[in-house]
C-alpha cells in the first residue's frame, strides 16, 4: 500500500473501479479521502462504522457527524449501525478487532455487488493492529488499499493538513498531559508544537495514533461548506470529550 501506487499489491487496478473511503470525519480518514481525490481516484462511497462503545478498530466519539461531513464532501455515505456490529464474544483484543471488522467487510461486499470496487482508503499512520486487519480484509475482497498516511512523519503530516486548509477540532482526550483545555481546541501549529513537547514528556503521539486524542474536520479543500458545531464538555479529571448539541453546514 502506498500514497504513490494507491494499491497494496493485491492486483486491483486503481483505474478500473470505485474506491470507498473508510471514514469517521476525523483528520486521518479525512486526509486519506482528500489525498485520494487529489490523485483522481474515484471515491464513490464513504463508509462509517458507529461503534456502540470503546473500540480497537474505530474512531469512537461523535461519528454521527460523518453524515454532515459526507454531505459537505458530496459523496454518498454508507453507515454501519451498532446493532449491525454483532455480539460475538472476544477473549482478547485481537479477537475483538477481528470481530469488529466483520460488519465493515460485509458492508464493502454489499457495495461491491452494486458497483465495481477497486479499493478503499484508510487513515492509519502507525497502527499495525488496525492496518494488518484492513490489509487482510482487502486481500479477501480482492481490492487495493490506499493509505497515504502510513509510516509517514507525524509532524510532516500534521503540517501538511494545516497547509492544505484543514480545520481540525479536538473531540476527546485521554492521555497524561492533555487537560480539559484541549476539548474543542483547534489543532493548529501552536497545538502541534505543544503536542510535540507532550510527546517528549509523556509519550503522546503527535497525531493521537494511540488514542490519546480524537478529532473532527470541520472544513478542508475536499469540502464544499464548513461545519459549525455547538457543544458541551465533559471532564472527569483525567479524560474528557465534547458532546455536540448542534451541528450544521455553514455558508
Descriptive account of the structure:
By secondary structure, this protein is of the alpha/beta class. The protein folds into 2 domains: 18-146, Rossmann fold, CATH 3.40.50; 154-249, putative n-type atp pyrophosphatase, domain 2, CATH 3.90.1490.10. The chain is built from 6 helices and 9 strands, in the order E-H-E-H-E-H-E-H-E-H-E-H-E-E-E. Strands 3-2-1-4-5 form a 5-stranded parallel sheet, sandwiched between helices. A 4-stranded antiparallel sheet has the order 7-6-9-8. It is globular, with a radius of gyration of 17 Å. 39% of the residues are buried. Residues 1-14 and 84-92 have low confidence and may be disordered.
Q: What are the defining features of this structure?
A:
four-stranded antiparallel beta sheet; globular; Rossmann fold; alpha/beta; 33% helix; 251 residues; putative n-type atp pyrophosphatase, domain 2
Offer a concise description of the structure:
This protein folds into 2 domains: 18-146, Rossmann fold (3-Layer(aba) Sandwich), CATH 3.40.50.620; 154-249, putative n-type atp pyrophosphatase, domain 2, CATH 3.90.1490.10. The chain is α/β, with parallel strands linked by helices and 251 residues long.
Mean pLDDT: 86
| Class from helix and strand fractions | alpha/beta
CATH fold annotation of the largest domain: Rossmann fold
Instruction: Please describe the biggest sheet, giving its number of strands, its sense, and whether it closes into a barrel.
Output: 5 strands, parallel
SS elements, strand count: 9
Please give the CATH architecture of the largest domain. 3-Layer(aba) Sandwich
Question: How would you describe the shape?
Answer: globular
What percent of residues adopt helix (DSSP H or I)?
25-40%
Proportion of residues in extended strands: 15-25%
Low-confidence stretches: 1-14, 84-92
Order of adjacent strands in the largest pleated sheet: 3-2-1-4-5
What is the name of the CATH superfamily of the largest domain? HUPs
Rg value: 17 Å
Q: Output the CATH class name of the largest domain.
A: Alpha Beta
User: What is the overall number of helices?
Assistant: 6
Number of domains: 2
Quote the distance from N terminus to C terminus: 37 Å
Order of SSEs: EHEHEHEHEHEHEEE
